[in-house]
Amino acid sequence: MDLLESLVQAVEDGEDEDALALAQQAMADKMDPLAVVDALTDAIREVGDRFERMEVFLPEMMLAAQAMQKALEPVAPHLELLKEKRPPKGTVVIGTVEGDIHEIGKSIVALLLEVNGYTVHDMGPDVNALDFIKKAQEVDADVIGASALMTTTMPGQQEIVELLKDMGLRERFIVMVGGTPVTDAWAEEIGADSWAENAMQAVAVLGKVMELRRGDASATV
Amino acid sequence: MPAPPYKMWEILERARTGPFCEDEAFTMDRFMPKMQEVIKKYGIEYDPATPIPSDDALADAVWQAGVEFFLEVGVLCVDTHRILTFDESEVREALYLIPGQYTVGLGKDSCLLRCRDVEDEDPPFVIFSPDISCDEELFLPMCVAYLREPLADGFCAPILEESMGLKIKAKTPTELAGSMEHAMSLREAAKLVGRPGIFLVAAGTAESDVGQISISSSDWGVRTSDSRLVGGLTELKIDNALLNKAAHYQQFGCFTGSLTGPIFGGYAGRAEGTAVLQVAYHLMGLLVHQAHYQMNFPFHIHYTSGTSRELLWVASASHQAVARNSKIISVSNGFLNAGPATEMVLYEAAAHALTSTVSGANLWEAAPARNKHKNRATPMEARMAAETGHAVANMRLSRKEANDLVSKILDRYEEQIADAPLGSEFRECYDVRTSLPSEDYLGLYRRVKEQLATLGLQFPY
Fold first, then answer.
1. Are the beta carbons of B94 and B285 closer than 8 angstroms?
2. The domain at A88-220 falls in which architecture?
3. CATH 3.40.50.280 spans which residues of chain A?
4. Do B267 and A58 touch (CB under 8 A)?
5. Mind listing the pLDDT tens digit for each residue in B395-435?
6. In this complex, do A156 and B207 lie within 8 Å of one another by their Cβ atoms?
7. pLDDT single digits (tens) A194-211
8. Which of A212, A174, A214 shows the shortest CA–CA distance to A194?
9. First-last CA distance in chain A
10. Which of A13, B150, B367, B416 maximizes the CB count within 10 A of its CB?
């Protein structure tokens, strides 16, 4: 097994110290940092796919993500170069709506978006509608992702859409909603842009919506 | 009392003074490694061939692992970033002080809610509950339909999304209005069907602490003979709002149910960790929430249901662990994949009730269609669970016999779990005016019951 394969294996196994040491070795050996990042990204995606296939579960996925973070530390000095060549797929502000303290589903979506190349700002649970928007403005986000786990907190998602309209910002951000009781009919009713039933679907749906938006933007340009 | 009142304040104070810990560190550095450690130390292994294990040593190992895990990890308060920790003598004291039974409800409708043994010959206490939200105009007919069920010892009503035509939002005046409407209509329904004193668990519409506190009234709202629920955050975490609920329920004087759903595939990992965590949650309920009973809904991270083979094992192993080692009153909540008026949902209800009953739990039934779809629940799913629970106890079924039976029932639905049918809404299979099931659903129910009888289940009637 060569160095890169060993690094990928360490990330997939969630061995953060091994991943760090192997990434340091890779940089010392003057390996192409882009090749290293690509391999790490493939590794974490593979772990995400295994999660979807129920071959691994959250602990393994979280340990793999932690190992990837460790492996990226020695590669970080080269990331400016990476950014020029590979801009992030998009920036997402995500959280659970006000009054709702549940967050595991939202955290899984955040994790999967991050490993799929998005820059993610996770605001945690119980987030006020205006705070979502302020944060999205602050980080120049493309997407606001709002999760709700209770039927009586779902109106918090509607509030985000309504505030965006009243602030004249509705077209500025993609609004994505999710959570156990949230359905596509609810997303349509409140005027959200997209809805996903689970975390993996969220990644796929957002990819399509972003593609569409980019297509529209270039058409306009 | 599950613990002396002075302890409540002493323990709640730990949310202010306990060891500092951040959220992520609690889960990554404390919770996850300790879980793997206790699973290994106590040699706990899930066996897909026995969704209902008969091994007492396994049940005791799950109990010991759960106790050690709880003592080592504690409970994090996410508002104060402090861990509430406990020592072994406190756990022993709390376990010793449990009376093991309470008379709940009022007058002629009062019943005994008690802890059960593994392979107990007495039927389970059955709380009927649709566990979903409903249209405002359906609330009363649905309540009446559930309260008419003869095997319902208690009832928890559906959740309102609107009150007086306004969308209910938690922590706002609409929630206060909706919670009041919920509590009042529920009492009205109970009186209408002639069970005014039935044990009620209310009000699911009140998600926030202020919502719950606003409806404590023995005159028109939730009475001291009724119950309220207080939950946890994923996993082994709480916040100040939950502590507010716990403290208020004690001071008001109603029965507290600790509501927790460990996630299979979540931070606890697979079946083994989910079962261990469920035991730990019983101790959190007892010591932090000062609860009178523990309500459990372990569920699958992808399906959000509890009737797959692994989840039945979780329910069985953890309830056996608790029943064999404590007098904690435990209630098992069925989360079913399929929706109402389908064969699958009735088989799932039977499998869940069979597993839980023989393993020493009481029943809380049932959340069809993965607890996700508005109006998609009826009393018939709960009826099947209740009749199955009574059958299991009356037959004095052993765990071995129950395992053989549940394996046959699993054969009837297991392959459909990923694509379970959504079924019908309440108004599609019930007459809203009379609150009675349609002939079609009654026919389907009879056919499935006959099939279950063919497999070996002897229903009481």
1. no
2. 3-Layer(aba) Sandwich (3.40)
3. 88-220
4. yes
5. 999 999 999 999 999 999 999 999 999 999 999 999 999 99
6. no
7. 888 777 788 888 988 888
8. A174
9. 48
10. B367
- Chain B residues in contact with A183 (beta carbon < 8 A): 372-373
User: Does A3-84 carry CATH code 3.20.20.60?
Assistant: no
Cα nearest neighbour of A59 on chain B: B267
On whether the CB atoms of residues B218 and B224 are closer than 8 A, the answer is yes
Cα–Cα separations (whole angstroms), residue A186 to A25, A198, B180, B244, B435: 51, 15, 25, 32, 28
Distance from the Cα of A184 to chain B's closest Cα (Å) equals 12
Taking the C-alpha atoms of residue B177 and residue B7, their distance in angstroms, rounded to an integer, is 34
Mean pLDDT throughout B10-27? 93
Classify the phi-psi angles of B375: left when phi > 0, otherwise alpha if psi is within -120 to 50, otherwise beta. left
Residue A220 is predicted with a pLDDT of: 34
Q: Which residues partner with B380 through β-bridges?
A: none
Q: B26-85, pLDDT tens digit by residue?
A: 999 999 999 999 999 999 999 999 999 999 999 999 999 999 999 999 999 999 999 999
Q: Which fold has domain B101-455?
A: TIM Barrel (3.20.20)
Average pLDDT over residues A164-193: 92
Angle (nearest 5°) at CA B19 between B18 and B23:
105
Task: Give the gap in angstroms from C-alpha A156 to the nearest C-alpha of chain B.
Answer: 8
Interface ipTM: 0.83
